[in-house]
């Protein structure tokens, strides 16, 4: 990998996004991150030496502005980790609030679309042509959790988005893969140690894994030549409920 490669990470101010930004920078990539919290983005950028921009991924105009800034800064984009997303408290399907549903879909699905579309356009039009988009799916993109209708639906949809980008990207040397992550140790999963709702209605603590394992997976996916692609990768805490969930 040459030091000229550029990696873009959305949701880069905290959690998996922060860890990914630090990991890509340590591996020699020039990095660009975006998110909503300026202070967090500045802190990560101070460690990576990279570009940052405040951006709400639910706003296509803000997404376009951010990517234009990255292109102006670096002249190219090689890898995009389409990571920004949100979760919501567990609630039975009949009690799902419409506002929560719309907000979840707007962030996890529409936001991922806006990001991928801008990345695709730049990769299609740059010279040399091509690049790699890695979508952040979830264990829930395959096996849903109870009480998480909006999140589950949004992440199942990411799988369809990934497949579509992979197919349409062939003509432009654009590879697209998806990383499905299970219980990486971040602030978002801290409650799992105290117990979370299971399919049988019980509350049970779940094991977590070091987020560094996710970064290792991302770097492997990103480091492949564009003639090869990891279409789907699952990285999870070994003994978490997944195989046989429910």
Element string (H = helix, E = strand)? EHEHEHEHEHEEEHE
Largest sheet: 7 strands, parallel
How many β-strands, per DSSP? Answer: 9
Q: Per CATH, what is the topology?
A: Rossmann fold
Task: State the CATH class.
Answer: Alpha Beta
Give the strand line-up of the largest sheet: 3-2-1-4-5-6-9
**Model regions low in confidence, pLDDT < 50 over at least 5 residues:** none
Whole-angstrom Rg:
17 Å
Can you give a write-up of this model?
The chain has 246 residues and is of the alpha/beta class. The protein has one domain: Rossmann fold, CATH 3.40.50.720. The protein contains 6 helices and 9 strands, in the order E-H-E-H-E-H-E-H-E-H-E-E-E-H-E. The radius of gyration is 17 Å and the shape is globular. The model has no long low-confidence stretch (mean pLDDT 94).
Spell out the key features of this protein.
Rossmann fold; 40% helix; single chain; 17% strand; alpha/beta; globular; 6 helices; 246 residues
Blueprint of the fold:
Elements: E1 6-10, H1 15-26, E2 30-35, H2 38-48, E3 51-54, H3 60-74, E4 79-82, H4 98-125, E5 131-136, H5 149-169, E6 174-182, E7 196-197, E8 203-204, H6 212-223, E9 232-236
Parallel strand pairs: 1-2, 1-4, 2-3, 4-5, 5-6, 6-9
Antiparallel strand pairs: 7-8
Would you summarize the structure shown here?
With 246 residues, the protein is α/β, with parallel strands linked by helices. It has helices at residues 15-26, 38-48, 60-74, 98-125, 149-169, 212-223, and strands at residues 6-10, 30-35, 51-54, 79-82, 131-136, 174-182, 196-197, 203-204, 232-236.
């Amino acid at each position: 990998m040459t030091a000229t490669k550029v990696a873009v990470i959305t949701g880069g101010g905290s959690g998996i996004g922060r860890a990914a930004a630090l990991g890509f920078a340590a591996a020699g990539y020039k990095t660009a991150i975006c998110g909503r919290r300026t202070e967090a983005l500045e802190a990560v950028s101070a460690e990576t030496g990279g570009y940052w921009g405040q951006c709400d991924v639910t706003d296509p105009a803000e997404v376009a502005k951010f990517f234009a800034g990255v292109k102006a800064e670096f002249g190219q984009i090689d890898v995009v980790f389409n990571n920004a997303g949100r979760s919501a408290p567990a609630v039975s399907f009949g009690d799902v609030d419409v506002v929560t549903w719309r907000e979840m879909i707007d962030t996890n699905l529409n936001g991922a679309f806006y990001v991928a579309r801008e990345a695709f356009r730049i990769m299609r039009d740059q010279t040399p042509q091509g690049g790699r988009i890695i979508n952040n799916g979830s264990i829930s993109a395959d096996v849903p959790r109870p009480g998480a209708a909006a999140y589950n639906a949004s992440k199942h949809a990411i799988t369809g988005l990934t497949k579509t980008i992979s197919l349409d990207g062939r003509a432009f040397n654009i590879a697209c893969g998806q990383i499905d992550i299970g219980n990486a140790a971040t602030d978002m999963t801290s409650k799992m140690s105290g117990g979370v709702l299971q399919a049988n209605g019980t509350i049970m603590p779940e094991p977590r894994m070091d987020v560094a394992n996710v970064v290792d997976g991302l770097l492997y996916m990103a480091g492949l030549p564009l003639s090869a692609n990891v279409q789907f990768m699952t990285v999870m805490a070994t003994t978490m409920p997944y195989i046989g969930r429910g």
